């Protein structure tokens, strides 16, 4: 009898933890997640690699644990709800799968990652229903932070940090002037590099601020105020950090300041800023410690959710349809990804009226990167007015991951070289214009255009959209990158040289098509 009683208690304990009404839906959700991760394993591997290898995204490694904790906080109320299969959730699942497809056909990892995370989120609605999804609303939203994003803010944050640092440098009595992301002081030239932009602090602090705003506050205006501080504080703090390095260097030397920066700043600095943020918000926390976060009774009595609950479907039938929907999108994507334009065997830089070809001899070696291009050309032209510029052309048969014309590190500024991004230039005919600098002295202006089909643009986003449209319509169009670049020389400005050459090759679209031998 004692043994039987013990077994009975164990079974009751298990049932108390996961009610029977939850076991089937949770099993289907678990199998769906396993299937989705397996089907898109390559994309998950790339994303997890970013979490592990990029210091900007190391904090995401904690988010799965945070999500488990957020669900655990809600479990006493969640278990009172009745999960069920909900067929309208298929619309969200299909939408997430289509987002992944758009990312795949355009070679944009960010969209692919939004899609694969979105499919996991949508699966919760499909297999647990709208009431449970409403109870898990914040964890599901927070789950979106699994997607590594924010690097797009780096150039803007570099400029903001440089402006804050120069203002504080002047305030502290140190003579200096700023040019783009470079700050010239009596002891040397300082660069607000990508690693010093503060993007990693901003992304991590935003994730922390969002969590604290939800867990510790009930008042919406307090949440919004706290989030505003969580975003502004790391930006200001990073400007102070840059100024501190410059200021210490004036008295202790550049090497000492650099060593101090590496020792004190980084995660130690972030920890202090995080403590400051929590200290600011501490006295304004207004959520009771025993708050349950959700109320099952209120959810079940919601008129809207009760209407949604009418659209049910048997769980395993829904599981089969879900896998068919996602699998079909994956198969169709594999098919259209095979599209590849026919390229000429060889391309060459054409003759240009009023200009002649000269040997490529830059004062500081500069070579754009187009790692996945099928053809690349780099040459120089000069005219009889003293203008000289360099022309770079890259031609692609198709765009995909690793073969992206506008991918990270592709184009005029190659990572790991002596060249640094200085500031944006004035765009011409929609081009993306960038000033680059080497050795603190040599300046170079680079203007970038992309061409695919009938589209001519300097916008990477517009290029992606054009490539997506071509793929979805079954068009096998080439993609071409054109970079016109010139060094800024005494009495011969880079901008004047580029404008003179561009005027000589107008219309630009036809000139690019002639190189690519597009009909």
Automatic annotation (TrEMBL):
Enzyme Commission numbers on file: 3.4.22.-
Swiss-Prot/TrEMBL GO biological process terms: proteolysis
Main location: membrane
InterPro entries for this protein: EpsH-like (IPR013426), Exo/Archaeosortase_dom (IPR026392), Exosortase (IPR019127), Exosortase-1 (IPR017540), Methanolan_biosynth_EpsI (IPR014263)
Transmembrane segments: 26-45, 57-75, 87-108, 114-147, 198-217, 224-244, 264-285, 314-333
Listed GO CC annotations: plasma membrane
UniProt subcellular location: Cell membrane
Topology with respect to the bilayer: Multi-pass membrane protein
Protein name: Exosortase A
Gene that this polypeptide is encoded by: xrtA
């Amino acid at each position: 009898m004692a043994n039987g009683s013990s077994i009975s208690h164990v079974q009751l304990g298990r049932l108390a933890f996961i009610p029977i009404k939850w076991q089937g839906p949770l099993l289907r959700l678990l199998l769906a997640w396993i299937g989705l991760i397996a089907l898109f394993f390559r994309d998950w591997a790339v994303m997890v690699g970013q979490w592990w290898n990029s210091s900007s995204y190391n904090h995401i490694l904690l988010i799965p644990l945070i999500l488990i904790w957020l669900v655990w906080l809600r479990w006493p109320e969640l278990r009172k709800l009745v999960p069920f299969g909900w067929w309208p959730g298929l619309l969200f699942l299909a939408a997430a799968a289509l987002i992944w497809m758009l990312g795949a056909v355009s070679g944009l990892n960010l969209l692919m990652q939004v899609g694969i995370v979105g499919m996991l989120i949508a699966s919760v609605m499909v297999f647990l229903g709208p009431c449970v999804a409403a109870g898990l609303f914040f964890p599901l939203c927070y789950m979106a932070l699994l997607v590594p994003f924010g690097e797009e803010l780096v150039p803007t944050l570099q400029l903001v940090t440089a402006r804050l640092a120069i203002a504080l440098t002047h305030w502290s009595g140190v003579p200096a002037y700023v040019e783009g992301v470079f700050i010239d002081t009596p002891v040397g030239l300082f660069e607000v590099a990508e690693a010093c932009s503060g993007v990693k602090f901003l992304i991590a602090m935003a994730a922390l601020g969002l969590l604290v705003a939800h867990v510790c506050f009930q008042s919406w205006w307090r949440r919004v105020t706290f989030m505003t501080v969580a975003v502004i504080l790391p930006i200001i703090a990073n400007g102070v950090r840059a100024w501190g390095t410059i200021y210490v260097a004036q008295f202790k030397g550049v090497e000492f300041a650099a060593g101090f920066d590496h020792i004190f700043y980084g995660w130690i600095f972030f920890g202090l800023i995080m403590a400051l943020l929590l200290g600011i918000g501490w006295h304004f926390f207004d959520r009771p410690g025993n708050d349950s976060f959700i109320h099952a009774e209120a959810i079940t009595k919601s008129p809207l959710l009760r209407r949604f609950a009418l659209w049910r479907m048997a769980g395993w039938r829904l599981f089969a349809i879900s896998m068919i929907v996602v699998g079909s999108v994956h198969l169709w994507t594999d098919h259209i990804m095979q599209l590849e334009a026919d390229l000429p065997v060889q391309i060459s830089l054409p003759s240009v009226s009023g200009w002649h070809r000269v040997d490529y001899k830059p004062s500081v070696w500069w070579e754009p990167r187009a790692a996945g291009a099928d053809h690349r050309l780099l040459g120089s032209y000069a005219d009889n007015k003293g203008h000289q510029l360099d022309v770079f052309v890259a031609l692609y048969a198709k765009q995909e991951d690793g073969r992206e014309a506008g991918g990270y590190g592709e184009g005029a500024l190659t990572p790991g070289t002596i060249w640094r991004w200085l500031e944006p230039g004035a765009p011409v005919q929609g081009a993306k214009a960038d000033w680059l600098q080497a050795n603190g002295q040599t300046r170079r202006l680079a203007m970038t255009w992309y061409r695919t089909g009938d589209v001519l643009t300097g916008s990477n986003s517009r290029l992606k959209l054009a490539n997506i449209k071509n793929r979805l319509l079954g068009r096998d169009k080439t993609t071409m990158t054109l970079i016109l670049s010139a060094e800024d020389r005494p009495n011969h400005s880079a901008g004047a040289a580029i404008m003179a050459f561009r005027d000589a090759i107008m219309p630009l679209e036809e000139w690019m098509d002639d190189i690519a031998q597009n009909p």
